[in-house]
């Protein structure tokens, strides 16, 4: 592998793998809540910024002899910038692009370290697994078919080989996390603790009432699994960074 692959979450928008999972207390929106006050709390928006990618080297980072190329970094950075722009406009604050570039580089390095570890453990992504993953993403997107989904992605600059490469990386990560126990079924106690945490976090919020536990069981299970995967990933990353040879050229 000569260059890093974009995160699978970025099939459409290069969202970095493991950039963070929302804390349980802040996950109310995932369960149907949100701010219904109708008040506009945004400050005056700053002048529009553009992502500054001038002067970047051809190789942004090297991780254990594998390179993160400029093009891969730019795709991830521009997506991160777009997401930050929404928050910056709401808060009336400019984006610290130097800090965001470092954050993006760290995310790509972490992603590559995990993929390298999956490969070191002998995991592989078969064509059949990639096909299944593609079908899942197509179904979730509402595209109707894998071919229609690929056409949509092509319009956004991702050709089929690139998409399948990203999907293969996610298959590797799924196997790595499963090997660490991420696919274990959440216990009843874990689900109840999360539900209570979210309920307490929303205590006193006007016009907001959490649905009953049984109605949210599936969503709670997904959240617990996401949190577990995030914790496993962060633990692995910390271990892998200790022994890795990492050079960032920003």
Automatic annotation (TrEMBL):
InterPro entries: PrsA_foldase, Trigger_fact/SurA_dom_sf
Keywords: Signal
Domain of life per record: Bacteria
Leader sequence residues: 1-24
Location of region: Disordered: 34-54
Gene3D superfamilies membership: Porin chaperone SurA, peptide-binding domain
Pfam families xref list: SurA_N_3
Protein name, as recorded: Peptidylprolyl isomerase
Organism: Aeromicrobium halocynthiae
């Amino acid at each position: 592998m000569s260059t890093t692959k974009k995160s699978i979450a970025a099939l459409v928008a290069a969202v970095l793998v493991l950039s963070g999972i929302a804390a349980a207390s802040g996950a109310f929106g995932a369960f149907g809540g949100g701010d219904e006050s109708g008040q506009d709390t945004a400050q005056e928006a700053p002048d529009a910024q553009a992502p500054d990618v001038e002067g970047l080297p051809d190789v942004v980072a090297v991780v254990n002899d594998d390179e993160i190329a400029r093009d891969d970094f730019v795709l991830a950075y521009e997506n991160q910038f777009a997401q930050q722009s929404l928050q910056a406009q709401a808060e009336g604050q400019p984006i610290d692009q130097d800090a965001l570039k470092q954050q993006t580089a760290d995310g790509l390095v972490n992603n590559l370290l995990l993929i390298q570890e999956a490969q070191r453990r002998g995991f592989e992504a078969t064509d059949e697994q990639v096909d299944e993953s593609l079908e899942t993403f197509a179904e979730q997107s509402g595209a109707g078919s894998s071919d229609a989904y690929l056409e949509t992605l092509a319009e956004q600059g991702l050709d089929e080989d690139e998409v399948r490469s990203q999907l293969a990386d996610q298959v590797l990560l799924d196997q790595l996390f499963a090997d660490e126990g991420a696919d274990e079924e959440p216990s009843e106690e874990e689900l109840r603790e999360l539900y209570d945490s979210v309920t307490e976090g929303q205590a006193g919020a006007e016009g907001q009432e959490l649905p009953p536990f049984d109605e949210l069981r599936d969503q709670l299970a997904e959240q617990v699994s996401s949190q577990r995967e995030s914790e496993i990933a962060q633990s692995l990353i910390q271990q892998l960074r200790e022994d890795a040879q990492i050079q960032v050229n920003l």
